[in-house]
Amino acid sequence: MKMIFAIVQDKDSSRLSAKFVDNNIQATKLSTTGGFLKSGNTTFIIGIADERVNEVLEIIKATSHKREQFMTPPVSLDNTVGGESTYPIEVQVGGATVFVLPVEQFHRF
Ligand code: 2BA
User: Which PANTHER family match (predicted)?
Assistant: First the structure.
């Protein structure tokens, strides 16, 4: 068995949830915050049999889209490096960031 953590954009999360239900894939959905953009994203936790990992990855891949997003870096208080004015920078987010981990034990009590 494997544990899949998939971090996706909020805009893709409803469609991905629906795909998991349609394909009988059990998942838990968490509201999370990206450390860099400090904006909301969604993390799915999926416990799945080894032989279904690729199926799950394909669904995540097909459902998660890359998007450009602008972020304004925080104003630097150190004016020795000329950081008193900041400009928005463009950042590419996604499709999905996915971790696949081995599961030592799985219990349902
Ligand atoms: P955020 O941390 O908000 O990052 C959003 C996007 O900003 C990233 O997209 C990346 O393109 C960019 N970015 C992140 N850190 C950067 C930096 N120090 N300098 C320049 N650009 C930077 P993604 O790579 O697609 O990541 C989307 C979200 O997935 C991340 O949101 C974070 O919540 C999660 N994530 C990505 N890599 C991770 C990792 N190694 N461990 C845990 N979570 C991760």
Answer: CYCLIC DI-AMP RECEPTOR A
